[in-house]
């Protein structure tokens, strides 16, 4: 499978090709979903180095499960990987029994793995600054609200998928999302930057 075909191929076809020995197909899957999976982990553990370590663990586990035939083709690939990432992040919390210390590195952007096709204009720079501001507000949300918002917004999962992953009803997932958005708006208003929040909606 050449590069042009890989970019157009569906996830299930890439997985089948990977299982047949084409490692490049997994690289294509990684390119598609690396940012979303890493962001999901990072916004849970709040630490860059821990998130990077957990991301590597996730990828190793994903590769092993696919090669052993444990991947269920009836499910979507991204929700399946997000479920693994979420479980590893929760396991990390259980092991350390304390909240990780957040890395405050000013030059770190959790989306720095995304390659931008065009140079940033002034409008794009403002948009990115607003996005970073919203991500900082997300860190202040209660864990369950933050988890649903991250999976919905960054993982692009449906509420049914989120409900299945978090083992709650769809109504509960919807409720957590609603409260997450209300709390985000409140946090933005308290900081005097509600306009940035509105622009990112």
What does this protein look like?
There is one protein chain. The chain is mostly helical and 201 residues long. The protein is elongated, with a radius of gyration of 18 Å. 71% of the residues lie in helices and 0% in strands. Helix 3 (23-45) packs antiparallel against helix 4, helix 3 packs across helix 5 and helix 6 (122-138) packs across helix 10. The N and C termini lie far apart (39 Å). The relative contact order is 0.11. The chain folds into two domains: 10-98, RNA polymerase sigma factor, region 2, helix turn helix motif (Rna Polymerase Sigma Factor, Chain: A, Orthogonal Bundle), CATH 1.10.1740.10; 121-201, Arc Repressor Mutant, subunit A.
Strand percentage lies at under 5%
CATH superfamily name of the largest domain? Answer: RNA polymerase sigma factor, region 2, helix turn helix motif
Domain count: the total is 2
Briefly note the CATH topology name of the largest domain: Rna Polymerase Sigma Factor, Chain: A
Give, in order, the helices and strands. Answer: HHHHHHHHHH
Top CATH class of the largest domain: Mainly Alpha
Q: Features of this protein?
A:
single chain; about 70% helix; Arc Repressor Mutant, subunit A; Rna Polymerase Sigma Factor, Chain: A; mainly alpha; about 200 residues
Strand and helix map with partners:
Elements: H1 3-8, H2 11-19, H3 23-45, H4 48-67, H5 77-96, H6 122-138, H7 143-153, H8 159-166, H9 170-191, H10 194-200
Helix pairs in contact: 2-3, 3-4, 3-5, 3-7, 4-5, 6-10, 7-9, 8-9, 9-10
């Amino acid at each position: 499978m050449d590069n042009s075909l890989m970019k157009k191929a569906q996830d299930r076809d890439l997985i089948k090709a990977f299982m047949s020995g084409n490692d490049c197909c997994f690289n294509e899957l990684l390119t598609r979903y690396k940012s979303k999976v890493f962001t999901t982990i990072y916004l849970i553990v709040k630490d860059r180095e821990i998130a990077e370590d957990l991301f590597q663990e996730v990828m190793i586990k994903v590769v092993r499960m696919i090669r052993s035939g444990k991947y269920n083709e009836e499910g979507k690939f991204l929700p399946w990987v997000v479920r693994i990432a979420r479980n590893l992040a929760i396991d990390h919390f259980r092991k350390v029994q304390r909240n990780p210390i957040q890395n405050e590195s000013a030059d770190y952007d959790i989306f720095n793995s995304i390659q931008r096709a065009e140079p940033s204009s002034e409008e794009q720079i403002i948009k990115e600054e607003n996005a970073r501001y919203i991500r900082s507000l997300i860190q202040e949300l209660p864990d369950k609200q933050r988890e649903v918002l991250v999976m919905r917004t960054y993982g692009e999962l449906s509420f049914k998928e989120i409900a299945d992953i978090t083992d709650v009803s769809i109504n509960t997932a919807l409720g957590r999302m609603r409260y997450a958005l209300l709390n985000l708006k409140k946090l933005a208003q308290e900081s005097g930057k509600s306009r940035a929040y509105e622009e990112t909606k």
